[in-house]
Design brief:
The complex is a heterodimer of chains A (427) and B (170).
Chain A lengths: L4 H8 L11 E5 L2 E5 H14 L10 E4 L9 H17 L3 E2 L6 H7 L8 E4 L13 E4 L2 H10 L1 E5 L3 E6 L9 H12 L8 E5 L1 H4 L3 H9 L8 E4 L3 H9 L18 E5 L7 E3 L7 E3 H4 L6 E4 L1 H4 L2 H11 L9 E4 L4 H9 L2 H8 L2 E2 L21 E4 L15 E4 L2 H10 L18
Parallel strand pairs in A: 2-3, 2-5, 3-4, 5-6, 8-9, 8-11, 9-10, 14-15, 14-17, 15-16, 17-18
Antiparallel strand pairs in A: 1-7, 12-13
Helix pairs in contact in A: 2-3, 2-5, 6-8, 12-14, 12-15
Chain B lengths: L3 E7 L6 H4 L10 H7 L8 H4 L5 E3 L12 H9 L3 E4 L4 H9 L4 E3 L10 E5 L4 E4 L4 E4 L5 H9 L2 H7 L11
Parallel strand pairs in B: 1-2, 2-3, 3-4
Antiparallel strand pairs in B: 1-5, 5-6, 6-7
Chain lengths: 427, 170
């Protein structure tokens, strides 16, 4: 009987032999990450551990992204402590404005195919886009990794999801993850790993693949793994990653479930207010008014998202009464978008561009608090009641294309019906 | 590991421990304070009436969407002896083990508030003697038992910096 990607990667890091779903393994971790929202706890746990030395600390990045820029004294002081820790121990540090952890880790060349990566954030599943097993943990776990280089894992069962056919122009990976949420429900893949495969994945650019792995966190997935191809290798090489050790699933691997999605005919999807698994096709709700449009976060704040928004808004104005904020996921994306002239297009249309960070995802920096009764359309990953600071406002979730098309018209809009909505970079 | 004996305290399905048992939405409040108000919004008076040694009996996906291990620190302060539920949120389950809190996946049907329960972790059995409920549960993996017995991952690594799980790992 063969093995899944998760069984192989965890097994390779725990002595060499592939592991089996359900086993507990103690595995060597290649890279770890702590971000500022959990650093207070993590630094406390490291102190409690009281290790004489932290031999693996240089393979743990500290990222100042959630409180970027710091909205209060407590956050500012956490940042001071993180900078001091990184300086003392030689850990890589990404400071305010450098970007969101899940973007800067791959961009910084910190991971490659076949790696095992942990981070103090549920969206650490993002690294699966690069054929690395990425998963979310807490401060105690990262302390253990810094001291021993190892961590215990329960080897997850895997759901295999085949995407049949390239997405139409105007339809994005976000529409696939929302479809999955509609089918399985939030936490519908709790404890499990996902493997996305098929021609739909092959056709996707890296930016979109990262969305696929990232947004699996809302399904409760422990990891969301893609096989590597020439696009993966080229991207990793361009970002200075170590030599890839690609891992494929065996044809006779055991899966908890197999799902097929006809991605060739998929329409754009949105999650309605408060529940990420209350998913409907955009055509079914077009006409729903919106007042706020947000593009950003680790889910959809990448260059292709901003390019798509600019293609829709080029030479046009936001609908009357609509405010729009664009927050690139990293400084590298910020610079690239600026150099491509995308900020000129977006600002001329009436949007605001903010420094890279997690700001538009959750109300911890007060980047955007909507008023009572207002409707937000966002490219983020979660829409719990009150996530943006006001339980009397609604958050709808869609792709960057859907957000930009809706900002243009003032109502939830299918990007396929507006000029520029068909933009996609030649893969 | 000894048998855990305690009274059942009941919570419903899909309880987020980030929301109901951490300071995530009560910035500036410490663990000691949260321990006096935890779960009040889903079960009024829960923390106040909690007696050290009680067992939390929760519904589906206990700890759903919860990443903060502070929740487990709060429960220790309340005196929670163990938690049983049909399913747990992934990150919560991990945090519980890492912080020395026994968590057992088990059917909770028929167990009511106040029932005195006995939990045999190594033997894989939950009983409610007064109701003649006896339920077999898969014994916790040896590695997990070793971490729990040490009181959590940090004390475990202080004793075993080489991750030696002892004979139990065999």
């Amino acid at each position: 009987m063969g093995h899944t990607i998760a069984e192989k990667i965890l097994g390779q890091h725990a002595g060499g032999k592939p592991a089996r779903a359900g086993e507990i393994v103690v595995a060597d971790v290649d890279f770890a990450m702590i971000h500022d929202a959990r650093a207070g706890n993590a630094l406390k746990m490291i102190e409690k551990l009281g290790a004489k030395s932290l031999p693996h600390v240089r393979r743990t990045a500290l990222v100042l992204d959630h409180y970027s820029p710091p909205p209060n004294i407590e956050a500012a002081n956490t940042h001071v402590a993180m900078r001091a820790f990184a300086e003392k121990h030689g850990s890589p540090l990404y400071d305010v404005g450098d970007g969101i952890c899940h973007q800067v880790l791959p961009e910084g060349g910190h991971l490659t195919c076949g790696d095992l990566v942990v981070g103090t954030d549920t969206h650490s599943t993002t690294y699966g886009a690069f054929n690395a097993f990425g998963t979310g943990v807490e401060g105690t776990d990262v302390s253990a990794v810094m001291m021993t280089g190892k961590l215990w894992f329960r080897v997850p069962e895997t759901i295999r999801i085949e995407l049949q056919g390239a997405l139409q122009p105007g339809v994005w990976a976000k529409d696939v993850t929302l479809t999955m949420l509609g089918r399985l429900g939030a936490e519908g893949a709790n404890y499990q790993a996902l493997e996305y495969c098929g021609s739909g994945v092959a056709a996707m650019a890296i930016d979109d693949r990262m969305t696929l792995s990232n947004h699996a966190a809302e399904l409760g997935a422990k990891a969301a793994l893609l096989e590597a191809d020439e696009k993966t290798f080229a991207w990793l090489k361009a970002h200075g990653a170590a030599t890839p050790r690609p891992v494929k699933a065996d044809a006779d691997a055991t899966y908890a479930q197999r799902i097929v999605i006809d991605t060739a005919t998929l329409a754009p999807q949105v999650a309605r207010q408060h529940h990420i698994d209350d998913v409907v096709g955009v055509p079914e709700v077009s006409g729903q008014k919106i007042q706020v449009a947000l593009i950003g976060t680790c889910t959809n704040g990448r260059l292709d998202d901003i390019r798509q928004a600019a293609a829709i808004l080029k030479g046009r104005k936001l609908a009357q009464g609509v405010r729009m904020i664009v927050t690139p996921a990293s400084r590298a994306i910020y610079l690239a978008a600026m150099r491509e002239g995308l900020f000129d297009i977006l600002a001329s249309a009436g949007a605001s561009v903010e420094a890279a960070g997690c700001g538009t995802c959750v109300n911890i920096t007060g980047h955007y608090i909507a008023g009572d009764g207002q409707v937000v359309i966002s490219s983020a990953n979660r829409n719990f009641k009150g996530r943006l600071g006001n339980p009397k406002s609604d958050i709808w979730i869609g792709s960057a294309a859907t957000v930009a098309a809706s900002a243009l018209t003032g109502v939830i809009t299918d990007a396929r019906t507006v000029a520029g909505g068909d933009w996609r970079a030649a893969a | 590991m000894n048998i855990i004996k305690g009274s059942a305290r009941v919570l419903g399905d899909e309880v987020s421990t980030d929301i109901h048992c951490s300071s995530k939405y009560l910035p500036g409040k410490d663990t000691a304070f949260i321990a006096t108000v935890a779960f009040d919004n889903v079960a009024p008076g829960f923390a106040k009436a909690f007696v050290k040694g009680d067992v939390i009996v929760a519904g589906e996906n206990f700890g759903i969407n919860s990443s903060r291990e502070q929740a487990v620190h709060v429960m220790h302060r309340m005196g929670v002896a163990a938690i049983i539920a049909p399913s747990f949120g992934r990150q919560f389950y991990r945090n519980a083990i890492n912080n020395g809190m026994p968590v057992i996946e088990c059917d909770i049907g028929g167990i009511a508030a106040g029932d005195v329960m006995e939990i045999d972790l190594a033997g894989g059995r939950i009983t409610v003697p007064a109701k003649t409920i006896v339920r077999a549960v898969p014994p916790l993996p040896a590695a997990v038992q070793a971490v729990l017995e040490a009181g959590g991952l940090i004390p475990f690594l202080q004793q075993h910096p080489d991750w030696n799980l002892g004979e139990k790992a065999a």
